[in-house]
Design a protein that fits this description.
The protein is mostly helical. Helix 1 runs antiparallel to helix 2. The termini are far apart.
């Protein structure tokens, strides 16, 4: 096996953590600010 596999797995793990963290922030903000939910969601997530 090539030595790149650990790097690829680490990159995938980091990406998943960032996505989950971002989704958690978006959901917590959305639950607090229900007015303009989609505007906030789009602004925070993208």
């Amino acid at each position: 096996m090539s030595g790149r596999l650990p790097l690829v797995l680490a990159a995938v793990a980091m990406a998943i953590l960032l996505i989950v963290d971002g989704a958690t922030i978006c959901l917590s903000r959305a639950s607090v600010e229900k007015n303009g939910f989609w505007v906030e969601f789009a602004r925070l997530c993208w």
